Amino acid sequence: MTEHAVVIAGGGPTGLMLAAELKLAGIGVVVVERRASQDLDGSRAGGLHARTVEVLDQRGVADRFISEGPIYPCVGFAQIQPDIADFPTPHNYVLALWQSHFERIMADWVIRDLGVPILRERGVVRRPRSGCAPRVAVSGRSTRRRAAVRTGSC
Question: Mean pLDDT of all residues in the chain?
Fold first, then answer.
């Protein structure tokens, strides 16, 4: 049985960012993802707001994202486009980057650079409802994973 402190169900933007933060904190983590790759059919989001770029900048990876998409000094909200160019941040813009591109860049950082393992074409199929060291069954293989914490959606 393979041991991890945390098993993350889902390798989208939230799961990948959580995996990065845990790995940077020295916590053993694995991501379980149903998709075979980071490729998406379509996109669920079309831009990164200033605070998201700030967080990426704090981790030293913002330039990877900024180099991939155009920036705009306004935010669209309810058909109003307020100008955010005077916001007190070095990233006072919206980065127009589709989620499919964001995930690709994020996965490159988290999986390749940080070395977080990702189990593709798998999902969490069983999780106990009690106990201090839950065991997580992963679809697609007979291997079992044990984790102190499981997070994400199944």
Answer: 83
